[in-house]
From TrEMBL:
Its EC number is 5.2.1.8. Keywords: Isomerase, Rotamase, Signal. SUPFAM superfamilies: FKBP-like (SSF54534). It catalyses: [protein]-peptidylproline (omega=180) = [protein]-peptidylproline (omega=0). This is peptidylprolyl isomerase. Residues 184-269 form the PpiC domain. The keyword Cell division does not apply. It comes from the Bacteria. GO terms for molecular function: peptidyl-prolyl cis-trans isomerase activity.
């Protein structure tokens, strides 16, 4: 969905580490746009599929080149010939497919917004224009020669992005997106993980001794070197979660069997406020995405975006060595933090 940029990592366009992750979070518009729910009255049922004209190649290349360059920064250009599956799909082919999916969703969501009477107000349009000017003015000669875009091209793409983003917010306004603190609660643990019950019982006894240093015991016996961890609901096995969330700060659990693994955990923070707040935001976003699926899925089933046969043949993926732009999504989120 929109809100997701075309990244290979995670099945959508974008590189997955550090600044890349932030950039793609921006592109998470469709993920965000996956948020078009709560639409009053719903959408009409279509008896036939309507064709929608996609973006021209130079506008599409803004996204494709951004993603390509971000990946190359992280992994070098040797990445693109890597074969990802038994069908022989290369990383280059996969990335371009993901970019195309992103652009199709962006086009459909922005069009659906217009049909629902949602538009950018004067202030938002001014922001889009200012954003496009800043991005365009930051392009190098090498960027411009490779992309072949004008400032108007950039403004069109940013305008659709902002419109889809706004539609997500407005059309989900009536949906129940509330997440309780209990549902989102995250706790901090120290853990010891072993593979047999006898060892687990012996380690547990050591942890009960007066003055026992739980971390030192974990370093000696745990098969998992990650001793410190945060745990949220739904992220661990049922037995582990039930035992861990029942602990008060400073308490040590009994032996917990979860599948083939045995745990002993110590609660070091029975309410991690910052992590809980972040988790709450993630769960609310997930609810928005799930709510949007019904509306967007119905709309998508009646429309197809047409880019033309062999659309990407017009992009020399291995060329444009002087094109280094990477901040298209990052810059958007500076203007529309959402």
């Amino acid at each position: 969905m929109i809100g997701r940029d075309p990244s290979i990592a995670g099945g959508r366009p974008g590189a997955g580490k550090g600044r890349r992750a932030a950039a793609l979070a921006g592109a998470a518009l469709l993920g965000a746009a996956a948020l078009l729910t709560g639409c009053q009255g719903g959408l009409p049922i279509f008896s036939r599929v309507k064709e929608v004209e996609g973006y021209p190649l130079n506008q599409a290349m803004i996204v494709a080149a951004t993603e390509r360059n971000c990946y190359q920064e992280a992994y070098t250009d040797q990445l693109w010939d890597a074969v990802l599956d038994e069908e022989g799909t290369t990383a280059e082919t996969f990335l371009l497919r993901q970019v195309e999916v992103f652009l199709k969703e962006l086009k459909l969501v922005s069009q659906m917004a217009e049909e629902q009477g949602i538009g950018l107000d004067g202030e938002e349009q001014a922001l889009v224009a200012q954003l496009a000017e800043e991005y365009y003015s930051g392009l190098t000669e090498g960027d411009l020669a490779y992309l072949g875009v004008t400032q108007e091209d950039v403004e069109i793409l940013y305008g659709d992005y902002a419109l889809a983003d706004k539609a997500v917010t407005e059309l989900t306004g009536g949906a129940d997106l509330e997440v309780s603190d209990s549902e989102a609660k995250v706790i901090g643990l120290q853990q010891i993980e072993v593979w047999d019950e006898a060892t687990a019982e012996r380690v547990w006894a050591l942890a009960q001794e007066e003055g026992a240093n739980f971390v030192s015991i974990a370093r000696e016996y745990s098969v998992n070197p990650e001793i410190q961890r945060k745990l949220a609901r739904g992220e661990g096995g049922q037995a582990l979660e039930e035992a861990a969330f029942a602990l008060a700060e400073g308490e040590v659990s009994g032996v917990i069997q979860s599948g083939q693994v045995y745990y002993i955990v110590k609660c070091v923070d029975d309410y991690d406020e910052e992590a809980t707040r972040e988790r709450k935001g993630e769960l609310e976003l997930l609810k928005k995405e799930q709510a949007f699926q019904e509306i967007y899925g119905e709309y998508e089933s009646g429309h197809t975006v047409v880019f033309g046969e062999n659309f990407w043949d017009g992009m020399d993926f291995d060329g444009g060595a002087d094109c280094t732009t990477t901040n298209f999504f990052e810059l958007y989120r500076e203007y529309f933090p959402g």
